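> forwarded from #structure-qc
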């Protein structure tokens, strides 16, 4: 009830209320009177995808967490398209987000889930107190591109979010459809996708790596948020450029960053060592195993075995890569022996994990 007494921040409150209303009213009227504008719809889907990526790969993983370094071209694109999402400047967004991580689940967390699902989703944007928190990101303020976007944010946002799609619509002879689908509808949907990260990923899913924070891992949410759904991993290891660490986990943001790296537009992609990740996961799972009646000694023994087996396997693999070239002068038998050692270490590691999983799931 305390929330109701807070002072409303009218600019965002009106924008966040009026835009969905206008969209919900005008989009069906347009389709009824003009039919489905296929060309502009395709453009709007692509633009929406890029808008979300500019927020997840740009605002979030690049500017807020510095999980990799990007070329100015990539930065400029993230800042231009990111502004079209109407989520504030990258400087403001990142400052709020860093506070979310450092003060998570407390009163100082700008979108704390402890104040309710709706508040964390978008309710916080309705109040002066939570919207107008001091901007504190001195490293980003020093970046001329980020600073420029912050100073001219509203002009860039208007031109990119509504001007650009209207222009594309005009070129396709459907300017109003450009404004409605590429502008209004896209902004509403991409905003909701981002808001889900603050609400749904702090509510739904597994606490795979830590139970110290409310953040959770969920495939469903990952699908809805360009891979941001592995949020328990992210809160535990926030400097990692990946959120879904397995190759098959749905994380288009991670794939985009890898593509940028391949194109020479990103470098220094930061990754948490596998052993650290494994340790955190086994620590969480060990609590469940202990609850099944296994002794602390037994659980610790199993855990240590798995971790040292993984270390041995990783070290052998790294050694093999290092001295691979020297093998050219050696006999085939030496190469085969090295490979057998690696396979043996891999087998021991996997065997340990299998035993662990069996205990965990029975
Ligand atoms: Zn984050
Ligand atoms: Zn979070």
């Amino acid at each position: 009830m305390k929330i109701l007494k807070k002072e409303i921040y009218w600019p965002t409150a009106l924008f966040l209320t009026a835009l969905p209303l206008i969209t919900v009213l005008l989009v069906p009227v347009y389709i009824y009177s003009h039919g489905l504008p296929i060309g502009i719809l395709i453009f709007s889907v692509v633009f929406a995808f890029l808008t979300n990526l500019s927020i997840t790969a740009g605002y979030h993983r690049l500017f807020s967490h510095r999980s990799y370094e990007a070329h100015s071209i990539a930065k400029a694109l993230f800042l231009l398209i990111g502004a079209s999402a109407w989520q504030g400047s990258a400087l403001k967004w990142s400052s709020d987000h860093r506070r979310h991580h450092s003060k998570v689940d407390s009163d100082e967390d700008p979108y704390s889930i402890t104040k309710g699902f709706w508040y964390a989703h978008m309710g916080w944007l309705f109040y002066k107190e939570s919207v107008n928190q001091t901007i504190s990101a001195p490293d980003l303020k020093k970046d001329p591109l980020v600073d420029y976007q912050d100073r001219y944010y509203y002009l860039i946002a208007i031109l990119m979010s509504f001007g650009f799609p209207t222009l594309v619509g005009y070129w396709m002879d459907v300017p109003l459809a450009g404004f409605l689908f590429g502008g209004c509808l896209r902004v509403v949907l991409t905003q909701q996708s981002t808001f889900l990260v603050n609400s749904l990923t702090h509510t739904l899913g597994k606490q795979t790596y830590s139970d110290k924070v409310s953040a959770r891992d969920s495939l469903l949410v990952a699908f809805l948020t360009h891979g941001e759904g592995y949020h328990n991993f992210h809160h535990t290891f926030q400097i990692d450029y990946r959120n879904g660490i397995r190759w098959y986990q749905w994380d288009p943001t991670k794939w985009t960053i890898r593509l940028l790296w391949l194109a020479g537009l990103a470098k220094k992609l930061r990754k948490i060592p596998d052993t650290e990740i494994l340790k955190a996961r086994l620590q969480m799972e060990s609590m469940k195993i202990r609850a099944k009646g296994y002794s602390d000694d037994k659980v610790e023994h199993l855990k240590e075995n798995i971790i040292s087996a993984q270390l041995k396997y990783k070290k052998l693999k790294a050694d093999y890569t290092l001295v691979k070239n020297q093998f050219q002068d050696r006999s085939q038998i030496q190469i085969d022996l090295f490979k057998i050692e690696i396979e043996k270490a891999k087998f021991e590691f996997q065997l340990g994990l299998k035993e662990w999983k069996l205990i965990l799931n029975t």
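QC bot note: The chain has a mean pLDDT of 94. The chain has two domains: 2-267, 274-361.
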